[in-house]
Amino acid sequence: MTAAKEVTPNDGVGSSRNTPLDAPATPKTSIGMKLQSLWIKSGLKSRQLKSMFKYFSLVSSMITLTWLRGAWPPVIALALYQYEPFEIAFPTLGYLSAIASVLSLSFLPRARFVEGMIFNIAGVAIGLGVALLSCFCAVQARLATSDSTIQPNIGPSGAHQAVEYNSSASAVAAVFLFFNILAANALRFSRPQFQVPIILYSIYANIAGTFAPTFASMIAVYIFVRQLTTAFLSGFAIAIVCHFVIFPSSSRDVVQTDVKAYFALLQKVLNAEREYLESMESADTLHETIDDDGKTTSRFQKASGGLKSSIAALSALHAKLQTTVPYAKREFAYGHISAKDIGNLFGKLRQIYLPVLGLSSVADIFQRLVKGRNWKSAYDGSNENSTVQAEVEEWNEIMRALHDPFEHAIRGISGGLEHVSYCLKYAKPVKSEKNDVERGLATARPGDAEYLQHLEEVSAKFWDRRAEALKVWCMQKNVPFLDYNPETKESVDMRLTRMFSGDHSRQQLFLILYMEFLLHATAEAVIDLVRDADRMVADGTMTRRRFLFPGRRRLKKWLKGAFKIEDSNNEHAIDSYEEAIYTVSLGDAFKKRKNPEHLPPSNTFERLGQVMLKIVSVFRSNEVAFGFRVACATMSIAIVAFLQATQAFFIEQRLVWAMIMVAISMTMTSGSGIFGFAGRGFGTLVAMCSSLAIWYIAGGRGYPAGVLILVWCVIFVILYFLLNYPRFTPVCMITMVTHCLILGYELQVNKVGIEAQTLSGQVYYPIYLLGPYRLATVVGGCTVAFVWTYFPYPLTAGNTLRRQLGQTLYLLSNYYSVVHHSTQARLDSTGGNPDDKTSPNALLSRERNRLLGKLLAMQTQLRTHLSFVPLEFSFGGKFPTKEYKALVESVDSLRDYISLHSYATRDYMHDPHGANTQWLEDLNKILAQTGGASHEITKLLILLSSSLLDGQPLPPYLSPPSNFTLAKFLSEIDPEILSAKHFLEPGYASFAVAQIAGKLINDDLCNLLQHVKNLVGEIDFSFHVTSTASTSATRLLTGEDREKVD
């Protein structure tokens, strides 16, 4: 093995390090040399730093403006309470305006804010009707059972309330509150897009429900409900004004920012891919050393880790765009790009994402080779490893041959992404210097009109140079390489054909073609994007702004889908940590099941009976079970308001906020419940401390100006964490709400006076007592919610993870089935024109994209629930975290390779360069005869999905589909079809990519089956006879050892 050359970063300053005589001996130079030394030690290069800077700085300006917009609503609401008409309108309920303004999430982009505000207002309107009904029934119960004269008293809203306790009114109000909370939270579980509206509805219902038994007449009810509703609507109005006036932002701005970040991440992934391939050029790439942290690692592992982290970030951003693009398309706007252009842009990005995803999987492929072929043994110096050492050296030589073509292609792709940014006005083009031509820089630059032609030349040159690595491979195998000539069809030495039949040689060849094909496909996809961007510049789309309105069909589609279980992005929902950021619909086929106890209805009576069965089945659903838990938890505190001995105590100590904390804190799993419990407690503690600090910094006497300025500053800081770390949204929201409660109450007392405040029945507390009491109330409510998460049986994150893995496998089986039918349609020529929206090819493509988006969203959910598992209390044995982690990774890998297989087979029918040959037609005929892939994979995935969902063992003797090598099968049918003389044929590279993807799919299926088998077990019908003379057992029916399942 030759020693590896030391690679030194060279960014224009490295040479000065070796010429210290030219540097003046000044402190400035010394600092510069130290900075240069730190730069070299960091291992970063200028292009890496530039890419990282782009990625982290693209959203900084937008986030800052969002902070400013989001910090104003609660401050304005608190300031309005100092206005006398506002004080008269809301004697003691003014703080609800500030809370409603916070929960309105005014920092969201326009489409999501408007949609959320519509549902918020609808929720309050429904709450108004339900509150009037419950209060009316409570008042009627009081009037029907009370014999004494009602003695009115001023209540907390300024309305007259009864002094006497009435058990009938309390019982009626309690029943209404219980079923109200149950129905609301059942809807919250089944329709996660209504999280915020239902939480606001729950706050409204809790306040109205606990005060309902105290009202003496409907006049008092009208006054109370009017003030309560107006307080909520005032908060909404403040949020609406702030959203549209203070630095307004649209969903289009979010998409634009995400697309710019997408371009930066694409460049980062391609640079990481280039550095990974460069690491494979070195002879000691697998040589392990100890780094500065004391960990044993190699250059290969470092490059592989960087590539995997980059593609993971790109996949996360792609999944986010999948959910934000529909909001941008349905938005009213004044700009350049229409909704159709936004959809086309995301479609082009998807076409870039798939080959880049496949190209990044090279790290996984070589990792499997390192493990399977035991490449690390090449460094132990034994003669037995000479074959492995020679194989490593072969790959080193191949990667050096690929270096220059890949370097130029990646540079051209990066330039194409910059060109698109300039055309779409995402960035300003760099001004070209006048003397570029004189300096010999006549090449087109990004932003130039002729850059498309330059990029096409770069792609064509790379495609023409793809034979260089194949020549190196042929030289290693000691066989001649003849460039393919479609006119003469020269033959190749039969030695090459015989040698090619070996698995190892075929793997090497296919991997070379794999990398070349995917990088060229990436370049072609970028060229398509550049062509589309130039078209928008040429037709005047980017030259003038205009009003853009969503079509009637799009609005109608949104209205229909608003009440369905749909894919949505809950990035900043109140309990976004619980929903794992994304909500995924599995489709109707997942829930529809034939009833084995009933035939389909044949008459009207049977159809009515079927409707009744559906209604009854709702009450045993998981949604109603969750709503029942929340209702029981709420009533655990609300019962204090409905008993004679404690009703006054409930009102005096403001225990209604403990009930509200239950509505906010109840989660679907105990792991997220623990996280939420700790987070909300910590957020309330921080809010209490900062409220005390604000109050006393402002003079300790409640000077409104000083308090409001400091509140704005604190909320501004809180929004930083909320926008940058969406997982901590509940903590940030409860912190802002607690500030409004504590400081709003004290400002209210300063305005109306202690005497007026205590007329409501609530005891006055100075701020140094109110803060701890508020903390105790929040912690008490969160504790009750935490207890009911475990009682009567725990809803664990592990259970949710298992069920969601089963759902993901169901989606994966559906996805593979669609891919299978797409491939078969291409081979049979029955797909029609892909440009025709009604053709089978177009419909299958739309379904593939939809399912891929769902699978990417499910990936985020699975990893989020996996992170909550360590937070749970484990009763019995430990949770098999390693098995589930490996299972999640296998599912992710399987999804990627199925996508790659689908992408590669699109070139079976037509060469992208339009050079179809007789060879390609012959290949398609043979592939059509084989029937393509089988449905065995779909059946296996469905079995694994059902087993995980139900927790049932797998059937006996279940095995993955056989490793069907299509290349070997084709060689047996026609020995010349895959011979070396066809290396440069159109479609040969795509065939190689499909074969590699198929092999990796089979490997991942084997791993997936084994992991599921380890979790749920396998039914065993083998028979054992135990000898009475010894402890040994004799197996009568032999077979593999299987886990015993009772």
Automatic annotation (TrEMBL):
InterPro entries named among the record's database cross-references: ArAE_2_N, BRE4-related_DUF2421, Memb_transporter_dom
Region described as Disordered: 1-28
GO CC annotation terms, alphabetical: membrane
Topology of this chain in the membrane: Multi-pass membrane protein
Occurrences of domain DUF2421 (ranges): 792-1018
TM ranges: 52-68, 88-108, 120-145, 165-187, 199-225, 231-247, 624-643, 655-675, 681-698, 705-722, 767-791
Domain of life assignment: Eukaryota
Residue ranges occupied by any Integral membrane bound transporter domain in the UniProt entry: 645-788
Protein location: Membrane
Keywords in alphabetical order: Membrane, Transmembrane, Transmembrane helix
One family name in Pfam for this protein: BRE4
Domain Putative ER transporter 6TM N-terminal stretches: 68-371
Protein name listed in UniProt: ER transporter 6TM N-terminal domain-containing protein
Lineage, opening ranks: Eukaryota, Fungi, Dikarya, Ascomycota, Pezizomycotina
